[in-house]
């Protein structure tokens, strides 16, 4: 049996390495009876195509960023709210608890099986015009974003202009100055060499970029219980491994970026983060109306616990 697993990032990012580890574990646990074929860097489907391809059965597994689900299922917008989950402990409590349960329960209606949450890291802001410290530093800049209404509105509230573009086009957009900047994790900034075409980076940790591992529901239902068990066990081990290694990879690659001396880097203080959050508060009111009180209140409870 062959399972095609499509993703859009490089092989040596947290997701790329996790996909490889998952494939190896599945082969080992199934004694070679199940083979997971990995298609990295969007060579099979772009990030704009992969969710529809999964629903149509053109691929069996994907692991998109949470933001890719927001246009399909509004509840997933809560994970795009800036500073909603301030640190790793908040992320774990949300995704392994009630928030994760609610989000997974909404997938069934779209013929998609949610299997696991995978880590990547917190997003940072880069640009090629000026240092970004205060909210008004965004004014007039153009930023590449994922196709998330919340993320686009985040930049508009800061006075910037968002431009949706596929992940694999981001370097080209930056290189040819079609946009001034972008937001991403350190591992993506490093692996795609954004630091070569961006002069400034703000360590803001303003949003969490993680992945949700999805399988075509019809394909999942055709698997035997023993085959399903192999996949779940392999995913569980991979998820535990990724929690440790995603942090290590991001820290190592940040040090590599620093060593290149190609970027001016500023880390936001707690006071500066609160200033950003206050500026972006209207987003919370809008998302509350779309996702409902129960989900929003749980996210806010976790935010206040760790902020």
UniProtKB/TrEMBL annotation:
Organism: Anoxybacillus flavithermus AK1
Family the UniProt entry places it in: Belongs to the bacterial solute-binding protein 7 family.
Keywords carried by this UniProt record: Signal, Transport
Name of this protein: C4-dicarboxylate binding protein
Any Gene Ontology CC annotation: outer membrane-bounded periplasmic space
Listed NCBIfam families: dctP, TRAP_S1
InterPro entries (alphabetical): DctP_fam, TRAP_DctP, TRAP_DctP_sf
GO annotation (BP), single: transmembrane transport
């Amino acid at each position: 049996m062959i399972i095609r697993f499509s993703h859009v990032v490089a092989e040596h990012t947290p997701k790329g390495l996790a996909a490889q580890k998952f494939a190896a574990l599945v082969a080992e646990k199934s004694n070679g009876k199940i083979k997971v074929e990995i298609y990295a860097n969007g060579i099979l489907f772009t990030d704009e195509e992969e969710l529809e391809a999964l629903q149509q059965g053109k691929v069996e597994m994907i692991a998109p960023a949470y933001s890719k689900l927001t246009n399909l299922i509004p509840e997933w917008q809560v994970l795009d709210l800036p500073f909603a989950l301030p640190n790793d402990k908040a992320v774990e409590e949300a995704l392994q608890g009630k928030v994760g349960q609610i989000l997974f329960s909404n997938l069934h209606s779209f013929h998609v099986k949610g299997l696991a949450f995978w880590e990547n890291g917190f997003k940072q802001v880069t640009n090629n015009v000026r240092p970004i410290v205060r909210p008004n530093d965004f004014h007039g800049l153009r930023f590449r974003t994922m196709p998330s209404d919340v993320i686009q509105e985040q930049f508009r509230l800061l006075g910037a202009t968002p431009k949706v573009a596929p992940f694999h086009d981001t370097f080209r957009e930056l290189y040819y100055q079609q946009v001034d900047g972008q937001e991403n994790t350190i591992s993506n900034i490093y692996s795609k060499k954004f630091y070569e075409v961006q002069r400034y980076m703000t360590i803001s940790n303003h949003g969490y970029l993680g992945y949700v591992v999805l399988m075509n529901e019809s394909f999942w239902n055709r698997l035997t219980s023993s085959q399903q068990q192999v996949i779940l066990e392999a995913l569980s081990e991979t998820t535990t491994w990724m929690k440790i290694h995603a942090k290590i990879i991001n820290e190592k690659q940040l040090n590599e970026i620093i060593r290149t001396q190609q970027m001016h880097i500023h880390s936001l203080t707690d006071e500066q983060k609160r200033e950003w959050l206050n500026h972006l508060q209207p987003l919370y009111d809008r998302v509350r109306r779309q996702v409902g009180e129960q989900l929003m209140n749980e996210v806010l409870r976790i935010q206040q616990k760790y902020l």
